[in-house]
TrEMBL record, chain A:
It holds the Pfam family CbiA. InterPro entries: CobQ/CobB/MinD/ParA_Nub-bd_dom (IPR002586), MinD_FleN (IPR025501), P-loop_NTPase (IPR027417), ParA/MinD_ATPase (IPR050625). SUPFAM superfamilies: P-loop containing nucleoside triphosphate hydrolases (SSF52540). Keywords: ATP-binding, Nucleotide-binding. It comes from Hibiscus syriacus (Rose of Sharon). ATP binds at K11, G12, G13, V14, G15, K16, T17, T18. GO terms for biological process: negative regulation of cell division. This is Septum site-determining protein MinD.
Automatic annotation (TrEMBL), chain B:
PANTHER family: CELL DIVISION TOPOLOGICAL SPECIFICITY FACTOR HOMOLOG, CHLOROPLASTIC (PTHR33404:SF2). InterPro entries: MinE (IPR005527), MinE_sf (IPR036707). Coiled coil: none annotated. One of its GO terms (biological process) is cell division. This is Cell division topological specificity factor-like protein. Belongs to the MinE family. It holds the Pfam family MinE.
Length: 240, 227
């Protein structure tokens, strides 16, 4: 039975499609059969991330499905994948569109698990909380969080909230912490996914770890080392 | 990729450059953060000089932190160019004691500074927003809550007027979301009044006869039921 996971965030631009592409590729490298679906039918980006934009033949709008209404095409697609005679996929990752409107509701219908991507900004955290409420209303209880675009220098300088704070406030188990990495932009431009880099990029390593945690279905604990120790004695000034 | 490290940069008046500026900072391990993104050098410094009217360009919102140390100083947070020259002049003119004090404030920031750091302000705002978003209740629910509370209370007290009952939702920094229901009460119903206890104090009068005498007159009225 395949595991159907939606990658969602609420706010746009926090890294859903990047996460889908890289986690999906990491899973494939671990030996699983992965199908990644871009559920944003109008503004698709997953093909760009994977470098496959020239190889797009059909989109889901163009398939003739038994249901006249195209909104149900996604559910039909997932069911067809599950019912495959040959080997059915181990993972089906659905990259959701931004927002909390009908596009998202359609995209999360076939799924039982969710990965919530968020950054450490107050805007995306608020939207992430809204989306969590929506997911739970729709029956998806298994929600894990990936914190993206983390800048540890700003966390140390008390300019950015820490992952620990966010974990306390949102109350979701943590799947991964991805540092801000300019390699992400470069690999998007080249169409060569980040996790395939040799030597591996920092963010790529973090994505691989997150993929492994997804497989094993456990979560990580936010590290205390990000936070400044409360009482800094005189000698810590020298120690560093 | 962001790299955090210690940087001691020489003072040059880079007024010809729009973005990067370099300024003299003591080699304090705590606060000089240099993040190098690709080719451009982008120095983020928190100028924490006491008593200086700095109009600093907010690079990543660092100016709020310096306002904490400077107390009453009002900084314009949005994009005013820093006057490096006057800043340097002032720094040079500070006495040794002032500099020592400043250094102490930088190396050991007071709790007030840490509390008003950008991360903490963001955290507080986020908490408030999350509470109010999560607890937003519909009008219909409010009516029902009021009706149920009035019904529950009317077993014990006589309510002045049902229309004057109000429900308000507010947020409190310690407790989170607070629902308050204001109910004007005419009197307690007969069976729940405390009249049955003999000897309860119904009135207290207190007269202070002044400091010199050292005594205070207090009069208690006790309740004694009539036979």
């Amino acid at each position: 039975m395949p595991r159907v996971v939606v990658i969602t965030s609420g706010k746009g631009g926090v890294g859903k499609t990047t996460t889908t592409a890289n986690v999906g590729l990491s899973l494939a490298r671990l030996g699983f059969f992965v199908v990644a679906i871009d559920a944003d039918v109008g503004l698709r980006n997953l093909d760009l991330l994977l470098g496959l934009e020239n190889r797009v033949n059909y989109t889901v709008i163009e398939i003739e499905t038994p249901h006249r209404i195209r909104l149900k095409a996604l559910v039909w697609l997932v069911d067809a994948l599950k019912a495959r005679d040959e080997r059915s996929p181990d993972f089906i990752l659905i990259d959701c569109p931004a927002g909390i409107d009908a596009g998202l509701i359609t995209a999360i219908t076939p799924a039982k698990e969710a990965v919530l991507v968020t950054t450490l900004e107050i805007t995306s955290l608020r939207d992430a909380d809204r989306v969590t409420g929506l997911l739970e209303c729709d029956g998806i209880r298994d929600i894990k969080m990936i914190v993206n675009r983390v800048r540890t220098d700003m966390i140390k300088g008390e300019d950015m909230m820490s992952v620990l704070n966010v974990q306390e406030m949102l109350g979701l188990p943590l799947l991964g912490v991805i540092p801000e990495d300019s390699e992400v932009i470069r690999s998007t431009n080249r169409g060569y996914p980040l996790v395939l880099h040799k030597p591996p990029a920092l963010a790529g390593l973090a994505f691989e770890q997150a993929a492994w945690r997804l497989v094993e279905q456990y979560s990580m604990k936010a590290v205390m080392a990000e936070e400044e120790p409360k009482n800094r004695g005189f000698f810590s000034f020298f120690g560093g | 990729m962001a790299v955090s490290g210690n940087l001691r940069v020489d003072a040059t008046l880079a007024s010809y450059h729009q973005h990067p500026f370099r300024s003299y900072v003591p080699s304090s391990k705590v606060d000089s953060v240099c993040s190098m993104n690709g080719g451009s050098r982008y120095l983020e410094i928190t100028p924490k000089w006491k008593g200086l009217a700095i109009n600093s360009r907010s690079i990543g919102g660092q100016t709020k932190r310096s306002a904490g140390i400077m107390g009453d100083l009002k900084l314009s947070p949005n994009a005013v160019r820093e006057d490096v020259e006057s800043f340097l002049l002032h720094a040079v003119n500070m006495s040794f004691f002032e500099r020592l004090n400043l250094a102490r404030k930088i190396v050991f920031p007071s709790p007030a500074t840490r509390r008003s750091s950008n991360a903490n302000i963001g955290k507080q705002r986020l908490k408030m927003i999350l509470f109010s978003d999560r607890c937003a209740v519909s009008d219909e629910a409010k009516q029902k809550i009021v009706k149920n509370i009035v019904h529950a209370l009317s077993d014990f007290v006589e309510i002045e007027s049902k229309d004057k009952v109000q429900l308000s939702v507010s947020t409190d920094s310690d407790l989170g979301t607070i629902y308050s229901v204001t109910v004007p009460v005419r009197r307690v119903k007969a069976e729940y009044q405390e009249e049955d206890d003999v000897g309860t104090i119904t009135n207290i009068e207190y007269k202070n006869t002044g400091d010199r005498s050292g005594s205070v007159d207090v009069r208690f009225d006790f309740y004694v039921p009539d036979e």
